[in-house]
Amino acid sequence: MQSTLALIIFSLTYALIISEKVHRTIAALLGGMILIVAGVLAQEKAIEHIDWNTLGLLVGMMIVVGITRRTGVFQYLGLTAVRLAKGEPIRILIALATVTALLSALLDNVTTVLLIVPITFTIADKLNLNPMPFLVSQIFASNIGGTSTLIGDPPNIMIGSQTHLGFMDFAINLVPVVLVIHIVTMFVFYILYRRKLEVKEELKKQLIELNPVDQIKDYGLLQKSLFVLALILVGFVLHQSLGLESATVALTGAALLMFITKEEPEDILLSVEWPTIFFFIGLFIVVGGLVETGWINKLAQWAFDVTAGNFKLTAMLILWLSAFASAFVDNIPFTATMIPLIHQMGNLGGISQTGLEPLWWALSLGACLGGNGTLIGASANVIVAGLAEKNGIQIRFLQFMKLAFPLMILSVIISTLYLLIFYL
């Protein structure tokens, strides 16, 4: 009975989110609370399913970005990008998306979109353009870039912590295919938008003539912000060897920046996207109901049973199942379920840890790239949607999915060919 109820509540919650009849935060929280009230999940168990590391990372970086935004550095970067692209919108779109992919690999995709999206709104406003194509391209780039390293996306962090695989293992094995996927994706965006993003020559000329340096409003605050951002970056790179979670690094940086800038907490906390944070809380609880009642475990177990021990088929099924599941279900609990099952398959089949590597790459590519399939498939997607809404732009679920899902499938097809040629 509880198992069926969990599935019904999950389905109704997602139906509400997709319909956009109510705000996604309300839908997710309502679904989570109904699960608890109905007795499917005890409150303590529901709290256990909330990924506080993800939430802490989000809050910490939102605070840091909120303070840094006051320096005018994002406007500076925006005008610099316009100058380098000579005011051509499609070049700006590709340039910003490429920077997003690179930073997502070196930092993480959530932090990156928090830094890049304000620049996007500045440029779109100056050029009198619809920011939607820019935002969608950055969502894709953040998840694609985050796939390439150990620290870029939560599924990779989880895989790395449960295996012998380190930072360079991820980089060596995933960067080549990620580069190809990014280039192909940017080519698609170029074809789609090169004629739709038209700007009057006088606007281009006005923007190019503006001096980016004039946008910096507070050099003292800028120095402090860049200093703390540098410390956070070092912390992200070294957090495993230091025994620290990424949330600890981000929140420590946020607290340090508030301390040295003497900013009022009441003002700074207004820069946190609280609707996004509570959306994740509700979503973690709703998905936790599926975990506790065994639905996700059944799905993963079925995936292994249906392959009858065929290694190549198992890898392909893990890749595609992870991609489709991660588009609709948060990839964190799904990855957590798949990791022990892959270990178990290795034990049953007498496969060494090295021999299991193709399955880990299949899981990483599927879980990370699958997040591009829908607006709620990955943390970065939800963050961008929240920032857009705050700026008066609504990214609609089905509108996003019409473009995103085919592109996600294309990226998984490229990943399939990569795994078959080099690993299977």
Question: Can you offer a commentary on this structure?
Answer:
Helix 1 packs antiparallel against helix 2 (24-37). The protein has a domain at 52-133 and 171-272. The longest helix has 27 residues, at 167-193. With 424 residues, the protein is mainly α. It has 21 helices and no strands. Helix content is 78%, strand content 0%.
Low-pLDDT runs: none
Q: Using DSSP, what is the number of strands? A: 0
Overall 3D shape:
globular
H/E element sequence: HHHHHHHHHHHHHHHHHHHHH
Euclidean distance between termini CA atoms: 42 Å
Average pLDDT confidence is 85
Q: Beta fraction of the residues?
A: under 5%
Number of helices: 21
Radius of gyration from the CA trace?
21 Å
Structural class: mainly alpha
Helix content range: over 70%
The major beta sheet can be summarized as: none
